[in-house]
Specification:
Blueprint (H helix, E strand, L loop, with lengths): L1 H8 L5 H15 L8 H14 L4 H24 L3 H4 L2 H16 L1 H8 L5 H12 L3 H29 L5 H32 L1
Amino acid sequence: MEDLLNALASAPRGTGLAVIAVVLVAEAAFLVGMLLPGSTAALAAGWLAVDRGFPLPLVIAVVTAATVVGAHLSWWRGQHSDAPVKARGKVRTLLSKVFRGLRRHPVVAVAVAQCVAGTRTLTPRAAAAAGVPYRRFAVAQFAGAVVWASVLVTSGTTAANLMPPLDPDVYVAVPLVVGTVLLVLLAAKLVRRRRVAVTA
């Protein structure tokens, strides 16, 4: 383990930020992303901005771009999903209410959802299924992503400046742990899909 940490510590200084970007894309793009710590990852990006000497605007741009890419992948998956059609009973009633809300207030709903864990994953899919125009979705999601990323990354840099410096291994271990969790979750999802396909 120590050898692995040493190897990662000597890796290019953008490695941690790249792992955070992957986590943010996965959080928004895949349903399993609801289990990922998106807000924590954005805060960690602020810590990295201080520890690794990254310009704050660059880190905010990376965090924003990652969550925007994930949301657009989620939108695409929502357009190609038949889950709303298959829904029955109370689930169908709940989806109908959600869709009505998205159609009435698409900009506000999508922008606010970007700032709430879980809804960052579900709202783009629901907006696509509800027939929200893509342009409205894209503008609202981008605006929400910019605000969300700016607040969390800036909070992370503020905390990093106020707290005493951490051991350098922490900055290596955290992205490693998050990346490992992400790979395990994605592998479990693929195995579950394969089992369903075999039994179908």
